[in-house]
UniProtKB/TrEMBL annotation:
UniProt organism field: Pusillibacter faecalis
Domain HTH arsR-type: 1-85
Keywords of this entry: DNA-binding, Transcription, Transcription regulation
Alphabetized NCBIfam families for the sequence: HTH_metalloreg
Record's protein name: Transcriptional regulator
Lineage: Bacteria, Bacillati, Bacillota, Clostridia, Eubacteriales
Molecular functions per Gene Ontology: DNA binding; DNA-binding transcription factor activity
PROSITE patterns associated with the record: HTH_ARSR_2 (PS50987)
Length: 87
């Protein structure tokens, strides 16, 4: 998990999913400032590592952090309160 989170963009994506409620590629793309294809590649890496899950609703794919364990790990990495990371 930590290896997948080692990239600053992936860390930013997971942090955004947990704290900002940003859940689709377009929103994540706007928050990170990277292209849609780059965002999708990072999300695929996070999915492969089991950090995020995806759910298709119509034409949109929505992402969320896969577990409370991951939320606690992010709290530890960022030094924030675990209560911020409500799934």
């Amino acid at each position: 998990m930590l290896k997948a989170l080692a990239h600053p963009i992936r860390l930013q994506i997971v942090h955004g999913l947990l704290t900002e409620g940003c859940h689709n590629v377009r929103c994540i793309e706007n928050r990170t400032g990277v292209s849609q294809s780059c965002t999708s590649q990072h999300l695929q890496r996070l999915r492969s590592a089991g950090i995020v899950e995806a759910e298709r609703v119509g034409n949109e794919v929505y992402y969320r952090v896969s577990s409370q364990r991951m939320a606690r790990l992010m709290a530890a990495l960022t030094g924030e309160e675990a209560a911020v990371y409500v799934l």
